[in-house]
Amino acid sequence: MVHVIVLGAAAGGGFPQWNCACDQCQSAFHSARSFTQSSLAVSADGEHWFLLNASPDLRQQILNTPALHPQPQAGKRHSPVVGAVLTNADVDHVTGLLTLRESHPLAIYASQRVLGVLHANSIFNVLNPQYVQRCPLALDQPVTLCLPDGRPAGLTVEAFCVPGKIALWLEDPTAANYGSVPEDTIALKVSDADGNSFFYIPGCASLPPELADRLRGAELVFFDGTTYTDDEMIAHGLGSKTAARMGHMAMSGPEGSLAAFADLQVARKIYIHINNSNPVWTPGSAARCAVESAGWQVAHDGLEVRV
Ligand code: MLT
Ligand code: MN
Ligand code: ZN
């Protein structure tokens, strides 16, 4: 069985976002209803947990999640967190690594491209290289996740490229697609030894036929829920970028994820990485009703799922 805990359901910035005075964020500030930034925790045994992406809110997420608290019987320094698997180099997915400083054994898995980004930024050396292994994820083949001592953790991940874009902070404005290469955005299929599996795809710009075929009939998919409409940030006066410009597919519209998943027979579909501009945050909104009637669930921090 694979245990999954949603550590953070929101996209970069979280919900509410620190500097956002939009109606939805204001109501979240006033109700103290909040959601942290994009991350899952997964485990085969309930004892050893891998982070899927490491959010800037990681410390708060660990405080909120008893399964991730240190166990005193295991010694004065202990954490159930044994590693992290990264899907891109976005701020909301890598900066949590800095919370995991300093001399603590961990295994970090990412594409060669994203490992190169970490390597180029010496601040990530606060994860003491003597203790923290950086493991390149081979693409399109199952990779056994190992504990820092080398024993298998009972999980495999298959990483594959999905349509997307280089991290915003690494964009080259003069290059085609801002200098993106396919490995900039990967998705993960996480499986246990019995073949139970789920997909984690927090960033995805479109669903070409080969990706649709891969997901058809899946037990569980966590999927990019950044925006409901492609231009909602512009329409609400919150920014100048469409979802497509940010490397995300909107939920609604003929090119959106609701339409793309309609015939894929995925047993359980959960939106994750939801931007603070997305009206699905508001229970009872037309957008929330539309996604729920299409069989989707909107993730929330602390949601636990087993497959
Ligand atoms: C994204 O998901 O597009 C990024 O997290 C955006 C950002 O870094 O603000
Ligand atoms: Mn993001
Ligand atoms: Zn807002």
UniProtKB/TrEMBL annotation:
Membrane spanning residue stretches: none
Entry keyword annotation includes Transport: yes
Superkingdom to which the source organism belongs: Bacteria
Pfam families the record matches: Lactamase_B_2 (PF12706)
Pathway involvement of the protein, from the record: Cofactor biosynthesis; pyrroloquinoline quinone biosynthesis
GO biological process: pyrroloquinoline quinone biosynthetic process
Keywords per UniProt: PQQ biosynthesis, Transport
InterPro entries noted in UniProt: Metallo-B-lactamas (IPR001279), PQQ_synth_PqqB (IPR011842), RibonucZ/Hydroxyglut_hydro (IPR036866)
Metallo-beta-lactamase domain sequence ranges: 48-274
Physiological role: May be involved in the transport of PQQ or its precursor to the periplasm.
HAMAP family referenced in this protein's UniProt entry, alphabetically: PQQ_syn_PqqB
PANTHER family the record matches: COENZYME PQQ SYNTHESIS PROTEIN B (PTHR42663:SF7), HYDROLASE C777.06C-RELATED-RELATED (PTHR42663)
Family: Belongs to the PqqB family.
Name of the featured protein: Coenzyme PQQ synthesis protein B
